[in-house]
Amino acid sequence: MPISLAILWHQHQPYYKDLSSGEMVLPWVRLHGVKDYYGMARLLKEFPDAHCTINLVPSMLAQLQDYVENGASDPFLRRTLIPADSLSGEDVCFILDHFFMAQWDRMIRVYPRYRQLLEMRRMGRAPAVRAAEEFRVQDLRDLQVWSNLAWFHPVSFEESEALRELRRKDHGFTENEKTLVLREQKQILARVIPLHKELAARQQVELTTTPFYHPILPLLCDMRSCHAAMPRHPLPTGHVPLVEDAEAQVKKAVAFHRQVFGAAPQGMWPAEGSVSPDIVPLIARAGIRWIATDEEILSASLGERLRSGQKVERPDLLYRGWRCQAGGAELTILFRDHHLSDLIGFQYQSWEGEAAADDFLRHVQAAARAPAAGTETVVPVILDGENCWEHYPEQGVKFLRTLYAKLEKREHGVGSVCVSDFLAAHPPTQRLPKLFPGSWINHDFYIWVGHPEDRRGWEYVYRAREDLVAAARGRQAGDLGLARAWEELYIAEGSDWYWWYGDDRSSGDDEAFDTLFRTHLKNMYKFLGQAVPFFLNVPVKGGAYAGRYTTPTASLRIKVDGRRSSYFEWLGAGRYRADKEGGVMAASQKAAVEQIYFGYDQKNLCLRVDLRSEATVDQAGKGGKGTKRLPAPPTVAVRFLDLADAMFGTEGLTLTLDPTAPGRVAFGGPWKKAGTNAAEAAWDEILEMKIPFAALGVKEGQELSFYINVTAGQTTERFPRSCALQLTVPPENVDEQEWMA
Hints:
Blueprint: E1 3-11, H1 28-45, E2 52-56, H2 58-69, H3 75-81, H4 89-98, H5 104-108, H6 112-121, H7 128-131, H8 137-149, H9 154-159, H10 161-169, H11 175-201, E3 205-208, H12 217-221, H13 243-261, E4 267-268, H14 279-285, E5 290-294, H15 295-302, E6 307-308, E7 311-312, H16 315-318, E8 322-326, E9 329-336, H17 338-347, H18 353-368, E10 378-384, H19 397-409, E11 414-416, H20 419-425, H21 446-449, H22 452-472, H23 480-492, H24 495-500, H25 510-528, E12 574-577, H26 584-588, E13 593-600, E14 604-611, E15 635-641, E16 653-657, E17 665-668, H27 673-676, E18 680-683, E19 687-692, H28 693-696, E20 703-712, E21 715-719, E22 725-728, H29 734-740
Parallel strand pairs: 1-2, 1-10, 1-11, 2-3, 4-5, 5-9
Antiparallel strand pairs: 6-7, 8-9, 12-13, 13-14, 14-19, 15-16, 15-20, 16-17, 18-19, 20-21, 20-22
């Protein structure tokens, strides 16, 4: 009997439409619609015996319909339509700043003319107003065309001779040819929903949904659910249960799905795979039969370790559906294989497509071979169905075609199934003892409520909702302005705004997201006929761009010796890379710091600083290969500050290391002397430190904010340059808690 593989592609974009103006603020539904929403479904059509599930988020579909049926526009499309010789100076600067927003290696540099235009732009080296001096009218028209042409899926080029001819022509496009590109674009967008209907009608694909505006349901139902994985973590001020909003988002999604596809969905991918016991009854009441989330939720729910590294140790637990009862209702839950999903999402991008597909199926075969769950064995692989393909050659076409062909033939003993079909044939028998609240990322909700900016965004929502509830009293149920006001609030509850808040992630256009988030709340007041309160003019984001770093995922066991002792030593740490932070300095690739690792153990903040070879110092007088001695060895200082209440004072705390005396640490500021004696530092290949939380005078649940200064001669560089690294002080029994999770 073949192994049943249940692939779910999650198709989602935030809600970009400004309901007041009617315009889409950003173009990504349009562009991903042409590429991924059409291309992914069109590839499946070639392999009728390959089955999968496609999750279509309602807010994305609604915007897609707006483009097709209502002639919706966005600032990118508007400036594409303007004849190149009629562009204003402001239009030209917008185009030069925004029309290269695609994966450079796979979507720009593969086309000679688009690559040439990118080189002319001198991104990061010249502002748009200066670069504009190099662009003639023809250059601008070619850029208008290529910024759209590059987003067509390879199957569309196979289908359209007109598109192939434009690709061959490469440059010197006319206004008529630009019009042709946009006409082809709209025709493809119009095929997306009918194509999905066709695949569903022939039972090749199961279509599922997500709560309408992609909210984190557990946080709406009870913000305190984040404490399961993050005990005593700070919560937004004024938080209250919004169960009614959560249920409204679910009901709206199911009703919309039925309207568009003619049948209600049986399955749901909760936004970000976020689950808690609170959401089970409200999802079940909407008629949903199954949901899915991540394997770490199952591990935390059972108190069982499911894998060791990449190897699944308990396939009998992971590869099956589970019955989950809560609040008098029951759902079936599937738990995705995190590693297999990430192989497609992140690992196979640099592989040859056929080899990657074969390797993937071998991994599935090996993981589910034994001991499995008998006839209930199903391997769930769930991931984003759009963003990863931009990093594959030819948008992953060879990988997907090879994979689907092999699944049709059941090579390596693996066949594909739609989730509902499999569950109907093999109803789950095991009952989950409890459901751990968390998401697909680290089985917690840190991304959406862990940073002060996240919490500030929620506080804006709570305050606006109070005003909305007060305004609703005495109004008629059919009041159109009131209905639109509620719609704006539901939009602001979506997960995407909080995804980009904080220092842990950056979209490259964070200010646009922040502005749009506040615009939705401002529109709420406008639809109510009320003045917009001043607080909505204050950005949620700080004044600087967010830095690029990941957050710690597990406690560390560090030997402070200044050596790269083991790959696993810093595996659970957060990581900042200087080359991932934007700006001219980053582009120069001459920063003193290559990367910073930071994390914690039961009693200490753990820090590791990797300096560039030019900035390292031979401590023992025996320089290793590639090591250079500087005339003036650098000094490294760690500066602590608390951005919320300045508990360390305006100067903060500093800890300074002089490389000429390894291990010597100088403390500046109001440290707790009783804890400073336990501080450790070593500087050899790398700089490693342990800084006791007792020396900092902080308690569990408090947030630490800090950055690194590196001084060489008269020059001091700060890392990260435009933000602080942040870490929440863990409880003393963190090892025990993480083991239980």
